[in-house]
Amino acid sequence: MKYFYGHYDGQEFPSPDSLFSLDQFMQFIIQYGDQALKAIQQMMNDPKNPEHSDLLDQLLLQSLLDRSPSGQLRLTPRAISRMQRLALIEVFSNLRNGSRDGHEKITPGHGGDRVEGTKPYQYGDPVSELDLHQTLHNALAHHGLPKKGSGVRGQGSAMRNPSSLTPVPCPLTPLIRFSERDFELHLHEGTTSCSTVILLDQSGSMMRHGRFLAAKKVALAMQALVRSRFPQDTLDIVGFYSGASAIPESLLPLAMPKPVTIYDYQVRLRVPLSKLDQAPQHFTNLHMGLQLARRTLHKRPSENKQIFIITDGQPTAHLDGSTVHLLYPPDPKSTLATLKEAVLAVRAGARIATFALIEDYWQMDWVGFVDQLTKLTKGIAFYTSSAELSNCIMESYLSGRKKKTHLA
Predict the structure, then answer these.
(1) How far apart are alpha carbons 165 and 162 in whole angstroms?
(2) What secondary structure letter does DSSP report for 340?
(3) Cα pseudo-dihedral 117, 118, 119, 125, rounded to 10
(4) Residue 9 domain flag
(5) Which of 19, 33, 174, 193 is the most exposed place for a label (fewest CB within 10 A)?
(6) Domain endpoint, select from 75, 91, 115
(7) How far apart are the first and last CA of the chain?
(8) pLDDT tens column, 214-266
(9) Domain with 236 in it: what CATH number?
């Protein structure tokens, strides 16, 4: 055994409580989801670890955790907001330099920060945004300098001498001629409302390589971003597995991939939709996810609508009438049903961006599905690793060239 000696700086040695900070506690819950709450519940009931009990008491006092009527621990809105802020800070700290910080379009009038440049006045534009310098320049260029001897008297036809009551003639004020084509307006970065649905793959393979954790952090960060920066926008999260369901904001930190329960080389199952919760849950039903996303966006009044798909494989399930087909290896029937639904979403006015997580595949046959999806929907695809996922999604959301509908 080797010993190493160093200079003692006089500071107290950290306690387990200080080593396991509140932010680390929040990260622990984000990483392990509902299993983390179960572990915390066990820690609170363990008399051998008083340090952990003190920390958990602190969480309860700070209203980061509370108890349900049945005595189970649950996250409070304050804890969820804290997790969203932590995720947002982490995501933005990893963004590449040069990323824009807003999804704006250049428009005249109100709605955003003033930018360099002007545009000609059009009927209905706000005159409060006139660029006086450029307008005067245009008037002089079009009509020339005012001529001496022509004009109007300023402040009436005469003025009075302060030392007497005798009116003194007022000199004529030269006129500068203006026409409608002379007027120029400032340009502003105007905003436009946008509704986004994130389709989050919860199939069993998303557990590997930290893929689901990376995707969940991005979704949490986007929730914080939309609330603080773009309150006119809407953001919905939909998880898809053997089925699909909306993930409420309060449950997103606890969401996890579905555990794999079937290891057969080939699976061909038909399950009634009403009994889907009794079937294996780890398949990839992007078809139902797109259906739910399309119905969700139909209810949103935003000007622009988009769907972000985060997945690590092609569909292995689809819905046919009231029957769900769970098929492995992937079957062309699932692929066809999914592509048809994607086309319907585009026809309903949505744009689709697919984020394919590809870090651990020795063969990339499944990305052919992403290529088909992108071509049919005239969308955009990113082939990325989990580490770069936040860059792709945030830059797509924030850096629209003219409108928010542009995803890159």
Answers:
(1) 7
(2) H
(3) 130
(4) no
(5) 19
(6) 75
(7) 56
(8) 999 999 999 998 888 888 889 999 999 999 999 999 999 999 999 999 999 99
(9) 3.40.50.410
